[in-house]
Each structure stands twice: as structure tokens, then as C-alpha cells.
């Protein structure tokens, strides 16, 4: 594949030889399967999944925005989590769905690098938001009298900004270190989107150091954040010993949905980035945290009584009839 050298020349800042050795202007994605009949089934299935992701998370965002009862910091963070889920799945799902209908699945070098950046940006943002939500639960349960003072709007806003900023730094490191590699050989990516593992395999140079920095970066962020989350919930559970049985049940119900989401998201991430890559297993597990988890999050959080009650009250109160809003 003949390259347009200009698309990677600004990476000379890191490696001056890149513009002379990179001759991959596009990559071929092998996708989830090469079976045509299976791809047709997957097209319908994943299109349905994506519609559910969009509608489910939009429902959460709109309900929290319009409901006066869901104005606590927990729902402030949940609204942003739903927004990130929509963006995160939208980076990979539309391309995956469209590729089920074509025989040759291609993506440009620039598009591949952009996809790599955005996937890690929103993925890391979700990790940091889940940590912030765990901290919010810790303050709410362990320091209830100081909750509104500590978790005021100003602090919550800065926590969200810090999550975005931390994710941006992480993603920039991943992207810059990957794109400076020379790609002068095979251009087939054994995946359905551009990620670090499959791209490193295509580089025509020794990638050991970059692999340690880039891949372990993602793995260690996932693992260290999970450790922090586990410790915080151990502290919460220990503090519940002094509560009444009623208070203990209420606190556990508050944490249950968040713990479930944490397990669903962090488990696959650690599996992917803390072990040697195996393409067939990686693709299946990646589907879980890029498609399944964003789809399940709205269901998990809407099981909470206050969310269900807010939805019932909001959507039963405002009914559009004949183009007019009747209360």
C-alpha cells in the first residue's frame, strides 16, 4: 500500500525516521468473523445493541436533567457516565455494524490513529468517573453529616474536569507512542477496531519498550484503579457494622449498582491489557466492555427505586397529545 507521507510527518517530533519508513496509508480490519451468514446475523444483533445503548443512556441523561429529585452528586456523575457510554460505544459500534455489510473492511491510517485516541480517551474517562463515583459513595456513607459540604457543585465539577484531563493525558501517551512506529509490512489488523495490541504486531521494528510503556500503561491504570475501588468499598463495608440493619441495607443497595458496573467494566479491561494478546479471545472480550457494558449500565442504574420513580413521575406527567403538552 502506497503511503501519503504527510499524514504522519508531525510524529517526527518523536522519531525523525518515521516519515521515511511508514508506507501504510490504510489498514484492513479482519473484523469479528469472516463468515458471511454470521455477519448478517451480527449486523442485526449489534445494530439492536447500539440502538439500546443510545436510547437507554439518553433516557438516563434526560431523566436526571429534568427531575428535581435526582439532584445529588451521585446522579450528577451518573449523567456524565451515561454521556461517556454513548461516546465510547459510538467510536467502535457504527464502524463495526457497517463493516458487517462489506467484504473488505478498511480504515485509513489517520482514521485508525484517531480511533485509537478516542477509544482510550473515553475508556479512561469512564474508569476515572467510576472512581469518582466510588469516592462519592464513601463520603455519603462514612461521612453523611459532611456530605453536602464536601461534595458541593464546585468540587463535583472539578472532579469531572480532572477525569477528562487525566484521560486526555493517558490517551495522548498511547497515541503518540504508537503512531511513531514504522508500519512497512502487513497491514491487516486482526480486530474490529484499532487498538494498541494489534497495531504493535504490525510495526516493522522492535516494539518491546513501546509495548511495555503503552500496554502496561492501560493495564496498570485499570488494575490500580480497581484496587482503589476495592479498598474504598472494604472501608465502606467495615463502617456499616455500626449501622442499623435498615441503614445497612439502604447503603448496600446504593453501592450494589456501582459495584456491578465496576466489575463488568474493569474485569475485561484488566484481562485485555494485563496478559499477552490472543486475537480471538481479545475480540470477544473487547465486545463485552465496548458494547455490552454501555448497554447494561442504564438497566443496572434504572433498577434503583428513586430512578424508577423519577422516570415514572416525569414521563407520566408530561404526555404529548396532538402536538400540545398536557400536564
TrEMBL record:
GO terms for cellular component: plasma membrane. PROSITE patterns: G_PROTEIN_RECEP_F1_1, G_PROTEIN_RECEP_F1_2. Pfam families: 7tm_4. The keyword Transmembrane applies. The keyword 4Fe-4S does not apply. InterPro entries: GPCR_Rhodpsn, GPCR_Rhodpsn_7TM, Olfact_rcpt, Olfactory_Receptors. The chain crosses the membrane at residues 43-64, 76-93, 113-135, 155-173, 220-240, 252-274, 286-303. It is found in: Cell membrane. It is a multi-pass membrane protein. Gene3D superfamilies: Rhodopsin 7-helix transmembrane proteins. CDD domains: 7tmA_OR4A-like. Keywords: Cell membrane, G-protein coupled receptor, Membrane, Olfaction, Receptor, Sensory transduction, Transducer, Transmembrane, Transmembrane helix. GO terms for molecular function: G protein-coupled receptor activity; olfactory receptor activity. Belongs to the G-protein coupled receptor 1 family. PANTHER family: OLFACTORY RECEPTOR. This is Olfactory receptor.
Amino acid at each position: 500500500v502506497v503511503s501519503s507521507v504527510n499524514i504522519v510527518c508531525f510524529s517526527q517530533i518523536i522519531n525523525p525516521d518515521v516519515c521515511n519508513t511508514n508506507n501504510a496509508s490504510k489498514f484492513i480490519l479482519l473484523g469479528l468473523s469472516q463468515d458471511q451468514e454470521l455477519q448478517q446475523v451480527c449486523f442485526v444483533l449489534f445494530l439492536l445493541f447500539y440502538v439500546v445503548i443510545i436510547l437507554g443512556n439518553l433516557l438516563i441523561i434526560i431523566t436526571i436533567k429534568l427531575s428535581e429529585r435526582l439532584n445529588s452528586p451521585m446522579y450528577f456523575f451518573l449523567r456524565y457516565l451515561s454521556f461517556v457510554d454513548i461516546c465510547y460505544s459510538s467510536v467502535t459500534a457504527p464502524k463495526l455494524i457497517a463493516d458487517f455489510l462489506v467484504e473488505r473492511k478498511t480504515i485509513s491510517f489517520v482514521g485508525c490513529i484517531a480511533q485509537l485516541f478516542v477509544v482510550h480517551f473515553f475508556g479512561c474517562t469512564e474508569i476515572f468517573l467510576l472512581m469518582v463515583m466510588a469516592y462519592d459513595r464513601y463520603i455519603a456513607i462514612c461521612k453523611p453529616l459532611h456530605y453536602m459540604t464536601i461534595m458541593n457543585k464546585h468540587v463535583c465539577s472539578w472532579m469531572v474536569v480532572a477525569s477528562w484531563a487525566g484521560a486526555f493525558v493517558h490517551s495522548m501517551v498511547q497515541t503518540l507512542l504508537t503512531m511513531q512506529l514504522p508500519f512497512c509490512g502487513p497491514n491487516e489488523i486482526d480486530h474490529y477496531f484499532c487498538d494498541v495490541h494489534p497495531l504493535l504486531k504490525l510495526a516493522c521494528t522492535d516494539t518491546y519498550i513501546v509495548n511495555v510503556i503503552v500496554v502496561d500503561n492501560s493495564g496498570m491504570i485499570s488494575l490500580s484503579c480497581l484496587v482503589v475501588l476495592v479498598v474504598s468499598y472494604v472501608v465502606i463495608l467495615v463502617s456499616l457494622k455500626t449501622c442499623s440493619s435498615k441503614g445497612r441495607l439502604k447503603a448496600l443497595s446504593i453501592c450494589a449498582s456501582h459495584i456491578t458496573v465496576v466489575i463488568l467494566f474493569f474485569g475485561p479491561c484488566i484481562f485485555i491489557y494485563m496478559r499477552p494478546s490472543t486475537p480471538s479471545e481479545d475480540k470477544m472480550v473487547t465486545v463485552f466492555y465496548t458494547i455490552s457494558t454501555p448497554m447494561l449500565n442504564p438497566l443496572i442504574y434504572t433498577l434503583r427505586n428513586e430512578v424508577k420513580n423519577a422516570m415514572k413521575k416525569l414521563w407520566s406527567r408530561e404526555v404529548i397529545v396532538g402536538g400540545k403538552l398536557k400536564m
